[in-house]
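Fold Annotation — chain and its backbone
Encoding — discrete vocabulary of local shapes
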Amino acid sequence: MDQRAQDKQDRIESKSIESLLLDIFGGNDYYSESKEGLKGDIYYQPVDNPLTEEDISDHLHGERILGSYQLIRGTNVVRWLGWDVDSPDLKIARDMAVKIVKNITGIPHIVEFSGRKGYHILVFLESPMPASDAKKITHYIREKEGLLSSGENHVECYPKQDSLTKDKPKGSLIKIPLGKHPKTHDRSRFIDISNGWENGPDLNPQELLRYRAKNSDVINLMTQDEALQETLIDLVSEFWSSGKRHELSLYLCGFLAHEGWGLEQTKEFVRDICIRSGDTEEFNRMQTVDNTFQRHKEGKSIRGRQGLGEILPVAAMQRITELVSRLRAPDTVSQIDDIRYIKGKPKLEAARLAAVTIWGTLNDNGCKIFQNDLNSAYWYDAETHLVTEEGTEKWRSLLNKFFGLNPVDSFSRLVYSELRLRIVREAQIVPVRNRTYWDELKGKLFINLGGPEVYIVSGENVIEQAYNGECGIMFLTNDSGKYIIPDLMGERIDTWKYLVEDISFTTSTEAPASPDEQKELLKAWILAFFFQELMPTKPILAIIGAAGSGKTTALRRILRVLEDPDGDVLGVPTDKQDSFRASIGSHKLLTIDNMEKSGAWWMVDILNKLSTGNTIELRKLYETNSKFMIKPECFVGITAVNMPFSEETLFSRLLILETDKINDPLPEYILQKKIRENSSAIWGDILQKLGTIVSELRKIQVVKPPTKSRLADFTVFCARIKSCSVVHGEILFSGLLSIVDSQLKQLRESSQAVLLLEEWLSLKPQEASEWRTFSQLFDILSHMALIRKMNFNWKNAMALYRHFSTLEDRLRKDFSAEMHEEFNTSINRNIVKIRFNTYMVDVREESSGSNGSGFVIRE
């Protein structure tokens, strides 16, 4: 940031709330004030004086309710843009607000609860922007999300006008934030949609009002083609008035057909005009498009340019011609449309021919369609080095843009099916990686941040760059087109400062590690994310803590750095296993919020499979007997107020950390903004840290597991990196031992088998000191459970042996237990013997089943 920009920012940060609001909502020689009519109706009366800080102070103190006219007179620019979300159902209003906010997560913005039945989403600009540009952007996002502009549930866009006119000399107004609602008299306020909405903690208005969005970032919310499309829609909609619509739609379709537009492109354009202009006869307009293109393909006469010229002004016609030419569909669209309208050819045969054409085009000039070993298909663009997954919104958009296909059209659906069958039959099988890949043999870590570049980390200060698909590894890139470019040359910053150091860890029974130990454990878990190939079993990060302790914010920050800058933690759909499983295949880091509220009986099994990497079988939607497989390759992080699991198999795979309540939390948006602003530098530091880790992994190839637990792969990873400077090895290992010991202690205390064993030892110590097989011990303990009407969770002696093996360290500590192995010549198998004080139990292996370590229980 140059000195001038820094001085400007310093001036902004020193201003009061009144001054900051005046900067944004002032600028005209007039404003408005809310008044109540004789019948109780509310209206705004213009006040022909400039807005002052004193006026705004009255507004903030509830003495007056003021509105601001958005367009600056004489210039037709705006200092802010936004959306007014309105619904009598607050849940619907929230859903609509979320849809808008997800499009501007990279832009400084605020969400304001209006005080009644809706929300204002506002973006404050660094410098004034032409109202016409701001209007295109707000309309584009509203229509992209399919939100209505009128009706019971609707979204109004600001600005509403491109310019001031004689009919609208002041333009539209909006109530200035942070005042009372004129009807309910409830105060409006800035809210955090990630932390309780209007029921969440109060946010500091002065903090939020300081932030301004860069105009270039706002403009970039639309691509150039989208901006041109919005301009064309606005231009035509201006003349789309009642009485002219039929003729105008007829001539427009003819004009676009002659200009080389595709059928689906024209339908989408006319549909947008209907929405923008409030035309309720969309069905008739679509029929006009179909009939016009049919006549055009048959070579029949249709009116176009000449008919439009008789209705539209010359200047408008010239501008429309220019925009239509720039938005003309590719030649491939015409090829597919020609096939679609071949006379006398059955539709299925035409679809097969279209699929052949598309296949050839997509596999040309270095581009290729390929599939993985689970038959998921992808398209690699050799020019951009980006990979698009078949069946996604991006894939459908690609086929629509280049070939004019639309999923709602029957011909297009036939083409999709033909193309899919050919992919399964002929496409090459290529492994596709997501985000990271560790090659143990080469000692190299490959990282893709969603774009065309791949960063190859092969040691300290050794970071190479290559293109996706040309480095020997194929990565699945981001559909959104957004990705981070690490700053490898700038000043180093410490990633831990943004992800770890400010978390308020605390020690508890469930999270026995000290706050410093928990910080090191979290660092190690974040680093392990990049080396998942080293961990067939993966630790599930569980952050627990009271409401307001920042656990969700902590997990969300990690997600947005490691996987997706716009990603968010997931809720658990209690009755939708397929929906949840489907999200597993697309994530490298799966984050689940409020786990204790899930109530999902199937969650333990799914999390166990995620932790162990077992393949998950998924039923295809709407196809009862069709299934496909997902092999999860992701880390999992969860949050909960209290530990939601007690099952032994899952509990022992959790890395439990606990956060303490924060008395004065920073707004979620501020924390995320700091990360976003420093994302390039953060990733530069991450790559440097990973270089140090890679150097250490290349030196230390094999390590004995330092603890006996189901976190063995993670503890081995920690042992291999403990001497490097990225983590504090001694504190890390102390934390690991605390967690593992606590897990074993809690498992022992909750184990029915151990409770029965204690009772047996106390009642019959002499009998317990004798040698016994696990089969005999199983008979004794299960019989005791039956008499006491207790559920005994172990089905056989093998299951009991596995359980006691997990608890071996605690049994040794609490009961002086010993295990001894010897070879039994009579059965030619190993024998494990266990002793509690002076007794020992035989464990023998038979051919009936293996326990994974060379032993099998003799039943």
